[in-house]
Amino acid sequence: MPTAKEIVRKFNDLKTLPHVAIRVTQLVNSEKSTMRDFEEIIKLDPILVTRLLRLVNSPYFALANKVESISKAVVYCGMKNLRNLVAVEAIKDLFKEKGDDPVFSRRHLWLHCATISILSDMIGKRIFGLPGDDLFLAGIIHDIGLIVEDQVAGDLLRKACMAYNPPKNSLVECEQEMIGTDHCKVGMLLAKEWKMPEEVLKAIRFHHDTEKKNQISSVTSILQLSEYIAGKMKYSAIPDKIDPLSPLLVRHVKNMMGNYKLIIRDLPTEMAKAKELYENNE
Amino acid sequence: MNEKAVNEDFDSVFSDLLNGCEDLHTFLQDLQKLVPDAVFRLYSNDGCVVPEDDHLGLESETYDSLIKDVAEDGSVLSFFELPDKSLLYCRAVPQINSVLFFKFPGCSAGLFPNQVTLSLLQSFIEHALLKKETRVVKLENEQLIRQSEVRNEQFRKLLADNHQQYLLIQSKEKEYAKTLEIEIDRQTSELREKNRQLEEASRLKSEFLANMSHELRTPMNAVIGFSDILAETDLNEIQSEYCKTISKSAAGLLVLINDVLDLAKIESGKFELENDSFSIAELIKNVDDMFKMAAKGKDLCLSHFVDSRLPGVLKGDANRIRQIMVNLTGNAMKFTNQGCVDIRADLTKQTEDAVDVRFSVSDTGIGIPEERQDAVFEKFTQADGSTTRKFGGTGLGLAISNELVKLMKGKMTLTSVTGKGSAFSFTIPMTKSAQEQTEKTTKDPAESHVDMEGDRKIRVLLVEDNKVNQRLTGIFVQKQGHEVGVAGDGMVALEKLKTGKWDLILMDIQMPNMDGREATIKIREIESSPEMRDQYESLYHRKTPVPIVGLTAHARKEDEEGCYSVGMDAFLTKPIKNQRLAEIIQDQIRRIRALEKESPLVKPEE
Do residue A36 and residue B136 have CB atoms under 8 angstroms apart? Predict the structure, then answer.
């Protein structure tokens, strides 16, 4: 059975993240990068420039003035936000797919990822008072491992999905059994190659791990909370199947029930605002 | 999304986490606080009953039938009399999907509640409901506060980031400016160095040119000089013919050398124009005279015209204008086989103290095809390759003329039709001369050299290192009837001045041991000191300084000035022409005579 590394290597032979996205991520991680460097790189991809400006001017950012240049976008939104947008644009194409497979669907998964990123962002801000940058990014790419597995071992992944029967077993267990690794490990390796921040890598690696005791306000825990809520709202990764919430998080939700109610109430509005981000404009 | 749908969503999301009756509990608690004496029971549509223990003491069937009635009634508060005569109040509370029952102790059927009591009870329920709503609003508010705190923090961070960006960009810009400055400095010094090298190269070149002209003129001097001398000896016809050929070829070669040197000078920017008074009419006539014989030989008519409105005397470089006109006329003669050559000078513009003069030479020769008209002004080029063979010439003449005209702030123009002829012309600005009137009275040096006084035999000391030149110049001097002595350099010359009596010194400039300048300085030094002067036979008896004539192969203006600056009295460029040398010697003799007459008391002998 292949290791996570081998799967990622095979995937990289088939698909690569646009060079621009990787350079942008590196830039954001560097202290010395200027918005000019940033603009220089983005400019290499004129389509990306147009899309970014459209996103920046969408209701999600609710900017008072129209932004016409990348460097202005950096000024108004910050580099981290722009990095996230670049990431969205870069991986969006990976989720495009023809047909509708009821067992595993990339298009469905994209909707899941979008919901998770918006939810995580909301939970972070509203419950914990945390900035949503990393949460948003983690939400968007946390299940990238599934795409990799689908690309490299699609049949095995489908078998795993069919064997997945919560709460009797978990998706990760089924993947281990069928493929020999799981989307958390695979996703983390790929994200590492894409130079994603440490916190995001950790969240990808452990977003299905209910045993590990994470801080409730950690990216990992917030992802798990979002997974649970999204799953209940029919936005699960694998249609109609979700893992149960860990007891620690159950207690947390129970204590904050009123708060979560509000988040669920406002989710549709927030999703609508971010429509520009998630809709596959095919 | 409407309220109901949200609630359903919410329920389905948290159904496994939620105790469905919890909301009802809090509602009831709130209500209880408002009406502490009352006993409550709440039935929700989902089947929740709060509190679990029934304190009202009714049958469950009674509740069921009452719930049905109340549901139909809406949210109106109604009351029933219970069997024990007490009153049971009930009301549907759609906000929490429930029906509420309650009663007050001691409130019996005998005491029917009045309107005030009923509305009071109603408002208690509304109040409890509001309290529930308030809790949500409070949460909402808390979330909003947290969100706005995040926003503030993000905004603060954005500001900090942007400031950081500003600093970064600024420092990068400074760095860039610095490197730019360094680069400019580097390039500037590089350019300076290159410039220095170029200047040095140019200096070396002009030095080389000066030396070249010396090297070239020295042998030319000999060739021309000796062929002249040879021509005057007793020769048979063939020898005389050979001698003429040598003379002519040498003269041609000298012209060529002068051309090349001129061009080099012009190109190196060292060329300087003279600005002396001269007569245009005379100049044009000279040129015409020069070609008279040739025209007769080729059976061409040669005519010249000078605009009568032109001032008699103008200031300019007569030699160079003559050179151009000779070149143009020579070309016209060369390329014309029949018809005429016309030389003209016209006035085109006149102001108070300046005129524009248009010089032109036109012919009826072979003409120049239009596409070659620009090329004829280029160096080493003629109208076409074959012409070179047919007509000969270096192709330098027009290029030099063109450059000279440019130096004179004019422009050479050419109109030509193939087979019909060509016309070259140039217009140059010239200033009027102040000495126009006096000019006429100045005597012609060519006439005055037959002056009786100058016709005297003197002793000439020739200081010259080159053996051939020693001989040639020696012969010239002797032929003029003077006595000649030779010194190989400045040192020897000084020795000779000690022992012999010399009336005039011909002093070469470039010599080994002691050159002409140094020797001249020395002689002038000696003359000014009575003690030293006494040791020199040639000097001690003199009332005036001994005349020294510089001989140099360098035709540069600064060489001439150099000669005068060390105290020489005259200056002669090699190759030395017999005629010119005679003139200079006569001039000097005359000058000294005149001086001696004016100041006979200079003798410092007493």
Answer: no
| B595, pLDDT greater than 90 | no
For residues B384 and B442, which has the higher predicted lDDT (pLDDT)? B384
Written as one letter, the residue type at A258 is G
Mean pLDDT (chain A, rounded)? 86
Select from B150, B155, B163 the residue whose CB has the most chain A CBs within 10 Å, as the one to mutate to test that interface.
B150
**pLDDT for the residue B210:** 66
- The SS3 of residue B460 is strand
Residue type (1 letter), B217:
R
Per-residue pLDDT for B74 more than 80?
no
Cβ separation A131–B14 shorter than 8 A: no
pLDDT at B182: 94
User: For residues B306 and B279, is the Cβ–Cβ distance under 8 A?
Assistant: no
Yes or no: say if B500 and B537 are a contact pair by the CB < 8 Å rule: yes
Which residues lie closer than 8 Å to B189 by C-beta, 6 or more apart?
none
> Which of A116, A67, A77, A88 is CA-nearest to residue A229?
A116
* Interval A160-191: pLDDT, tens: 999 998 888 889 999 999 999 999 999 999 99
Of the candidate ranges A163-177, A215-229, B584-598, the one whose mean pLDDT is the lowest: B584-598
pTM to 2 decimals?
Answer: 0.55
Look at phi and psi of residue B505 and say left if phi exceeds 0, alpha if psi is from -120 to 50, else beta.
beta
B454 versus B85: which is more confidently predicted? B85
Chain B CB contacts of A78 below 8 Å:
154, 157-158, 161
Contact list in B for residue A236 (CB cut-off 8 A) is: none
Q: SS3 for B78-123, per residue? A: EEEECCCCEEEEEEEEHHHCEEEEEECCCCECCCCCCHHHHHHHHH
Q: Evaluate if residue B115 carries a pLDDT over 90.
A: no
Closest chain B C-alpha to A75 CA, distance in angstroms: 6
| Better-predicted residue by pLDDT, B26 or B261 | B26
**pLDDT(A12) > 50:** yes
DSSP state of A191: H
- ipTM over 0.90? The verdict is no
Bridge partners of B98, per DSSP, are B44, B93
CA distance B384 to B366: 12
8 Å CB contact of A34 and B17: no
Helix B318-334 to helix B280-298 angle (10° resolution) is 20
**Do residue A258 and residue B14 have CB atoms under 8 angstroms apart?**
no
User: Across the interface, do A250 and B17 touch by the CB < 8 Å criterion?
Assistant: yes
pLDDT at residue B371 greater than cutoff 50: yes
B142 in reach of chain A (CB within 8 A): yes
| Chain-chain contact of B149 with A265 (C-beta, under 8 angstroms) | no
Q: Compare CB distances from A257 to B18, B169, B172 and report the shortest one's residue.
A: B18
Q: Is A165 helix (H, G, I), strand (E, B) or coil?
A: coil
Q: What is the dihedral of CA A29, A30, A31, A35, to 10 degrees?
A: -90
pLDDT for B112 equals 64
Band of residue A28 on the pLDDT scale cut at 50, 70, 90: confident
Q: Do B146 and A128 touch (CB under 8 A)?
A: yes
Three-state SS at B515: coil
B459-463/B504-508 β-pairing: parallel
| DSSP 3-state of B344 | strand
| CB B62, CB B41: distance < 8 Å | no
